[in-house]
């Protein structure tokens, strides 16, 4: 502990030019880890280690097979690890490739941190720390601001098969040895766990956050290159043979029967580079053949796995309520035959302000129901949920309030947002809850074909008093028949009230509260008898609706700040 202050390492992880040196731990930890490594190495059965190395199993696969998970292994190169394991053999230092396989036959290079990257370029990393640096660079390049991360690894099924074959081989060969009897099966870790273990600490240091359950994901997806490329090459070569008017079968036969290669045929072989027969046994084309596939040593590997490294954030949600003051704004972007309907949309106005603040890829807009383009949304507003895909940044509460004020101070004043906040995915539950029972309040400007009479007020408002609520039957309105199935629905009108407009005898405001999903326009004019009863049928005259406002959506969702 004494040297803790004088040797405190400088951590520049938050800067963009990170190196694996940043991952080095403080000296106390390092000493402890070094001791752990030396202790663990002592118990490794040297003969078995050498045997496995000779069968082209990499050192880190051997470590995982013997349950060795020492944090310091992440920062050490294979060379240093080999020195620890087989230190007494000085000549190893000179020629590592004679000891450590080029590409491990068990993990296919995964635990050697070697992979096929973009454009089939093979990337080699000395240590897990070097690999972690490359991953951390990607996270920074993508511009993610994170407070934690989760690490996900997916591997081709071959890896698991290889692990099993390897364990089986060790078991068969060494089960009588004392060291084998002492160890338990549970000591052995999988390739996937070993990789995660090796990467977690260096990544935590480089990114300066903890690994765990997080909305930010680092996903490493390994897949096999060999088979697909080989087959593709093979097909191309056969195509090449065909182009030279040489039958593909003859072409292969020519190669197989080496003694038959004459000067002329030889030129065919050299220009088309058909795979030689002795390479064919290990070229991945034999994958479906059962022979040898269950035996050890494992098949020789020519290429490492292809790696796709993705970092992304799972969607974040903004909840709130919106108000719409215009009769020319649609709820979502509405384009018919390349022509925009209305002057704007709620979705674009709100999304266009939220998305850049989160630096996300895209957004999805969900609302609790919808109103027509010419219907205003007033009162407490309509609940909505904005889903932001792959946000690089999760805005603070303060910033969310700023987004809200920005939307609300837009010059055109088409839309207003209330109670905007970041909600978890439980926002969905809130939106769905009560959606079936939710009620809506409306104010409609109505015209009737005769002057309004005193008893009309009574007729309309007494509905509530006499039957508490009023049931109507609505067939799917003619105007939406092209996109909705023809059904008959029962809807409830909870109450209605007429408000007289001064100086006008045939126009009035109709206030009402109805069950969600009631078609109000049709309830007023009757839709050629498809809605029954209607205001027209109740008052015994023609009724037309001129304007409509939603004055309230009775849902508790996002009602408070
Ligand atoms: Zn390996």
Please, could you describe this protein's structure?
The protein is α+β, with helices and mostly antiparallel strands and 561 residues long. The chain has three domains: 2-223, no CATH class; 315-432, Alpha-Beta Plaits (2-Layer Sandwich); 439-554, Alpha-Beta Plaits (2-Layer Sandwich). Helices cover 34% and strands 23% of the residues. The chain is built from 18 helices and 20 strands. It has helices spanning 27-42, 46-54, 59-65, 78-85, 128-141, 157-174, 178-182, 191-207, 226-243, 248-256, 263-272, 277-280, 346-358, 397-408, 426-432, 454-467, 520-525, 535-539; strands at 114-116, 122-124, 148-154, 210-211, 216-223, 306-313, 316-324, 329-330, 335-336, 339-340, 344-345, 362-367, 375-389, 415-423, 439-448, 470-475, 488-500, 507-515, 531-532, 543-554. The strands form five sheets. Strands 7, 12, 13, 14, 15, 16, 17, 18, 19 and 20 form a ten-stranded mixed sheet that branches. Strands 4-3-5-6 form a four-stranded mixed sheet, with helices on one face. A hairpin with a 7-residue loop joins strand 12 and strand 13 (375-389). The radius of gyration is 36 Å and the shape is elongated. Residues 57-58, 60-61, 104, 106-107, 111 line the site of zinc ion (ZN). Belongs to the pseudouridine synthase Pus10 family.
């Amino acid at each position: 502990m004494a040297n803790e202050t004088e040797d405190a390492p400088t951590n520049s992880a938050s800067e963009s030019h990170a190196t694996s040196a940043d991952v080095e731990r403080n000296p106390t930890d390092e000493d402890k880890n070094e001791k752990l490594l030396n202790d663990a190495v002592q118990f490794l059965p040297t003969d078995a280690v050498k045997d496995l190395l000779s069968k082209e199993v990499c050192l880190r696969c051997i470590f995982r097979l013997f349950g060795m998970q020492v944090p310091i292994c992440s920062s050490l190169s294979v060379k240093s690890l080999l020195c620890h394991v087989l230190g007494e053999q000085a000549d190893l230092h000179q020629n590592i490739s004679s000891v450590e396989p080029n590409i491990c036959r068990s993990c296919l290079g995964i635990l050697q941190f070697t992979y096929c990257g973009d454009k089939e370029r093979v990337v080699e990393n000395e240590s897990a720390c070097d690999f972690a640096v490359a991953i951390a660079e990607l996270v920074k390049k993508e511009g993610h601001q994170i407070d934690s991360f989760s690490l996900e690894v997916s591997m081709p099924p071959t890896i698991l098969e290889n692990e099993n074959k390897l364990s089986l081989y060790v078991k068969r060969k060494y089960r009588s040895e004392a060291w084998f009897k002492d160890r338990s099966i549970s000591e052995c870790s999988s390739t996937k766990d070993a990789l995660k273990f090796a990467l977690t600490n260096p990544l935590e240091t480089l990114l300066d956050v903890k690994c765990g359950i997080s909305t930010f994901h680092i996903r490493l997806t390994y897949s096999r290159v060999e088979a697909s490329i080989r087959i593709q090459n093979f097909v191309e070569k056969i195509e090449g043979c065909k182009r030279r008017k040489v039958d593909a079968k003859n072409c292969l036969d020519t190669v197989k029967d080496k003694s038959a290669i004459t000067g002329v045929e030889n030129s065919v072989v050299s220009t088309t580079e058909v795979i030689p027969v002795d390479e064919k046994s290990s070229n991945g084309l034999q994958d479906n053949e059962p022979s040898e596939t269950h035996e050890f040593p494992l098949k020789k590997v020519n290429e490492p796995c292809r790696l796709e490294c993705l970092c992304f954030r799972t969607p974040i949600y903004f909840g709130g309520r919106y108000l719409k003051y215009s009769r020319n704004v649609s709820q979502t972007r509405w384009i018919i035959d390349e022509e925009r309907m209305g002057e704007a949309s709620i979705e674009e106005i709100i999304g266009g302000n939220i998305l850049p603040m989160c630096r996300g890829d895209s957004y999805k807009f969900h609302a609790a129901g919808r109103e027509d383009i010419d219907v205003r949304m007033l009162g407490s507003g309509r609940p909505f949920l904005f889903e932001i895909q792959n946000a690089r940044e999760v805005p603070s509460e303060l910033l969310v309030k700023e987004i809200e004020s920005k939307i609300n101070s837009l010059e055109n004043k088409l839309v207003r947002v209330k109670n905007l906040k970041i909600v978890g995915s439980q926002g969905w539950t809130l939106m769905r809850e009560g959606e079936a029972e939710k009620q809506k309040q409306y104010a409609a400007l109505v015209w009737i074909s005769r002057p309004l009479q005193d008893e009309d007020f009574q007729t309309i408002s007494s509905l509530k008093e006499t039957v508490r609520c009023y049931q109507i039957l609505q067939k799917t309105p003619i105007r939406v028949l092209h996109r909705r199935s023809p059904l008959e629905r029962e809807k409830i009108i909870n109450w209605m009230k007429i408000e007289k407009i001064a100086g006008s005898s045939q126009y009035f405001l109709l206030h009402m509260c109805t069950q969600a999903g009631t078609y109000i326009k049709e309830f007023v004019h009757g839709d050629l008898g498809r809605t029954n009863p209607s205001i027209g049928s109740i008052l015994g005259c023609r009724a037309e609706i001129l304007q409509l406002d939603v004055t309230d959506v009775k849902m508790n969702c996002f009602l408070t700040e």
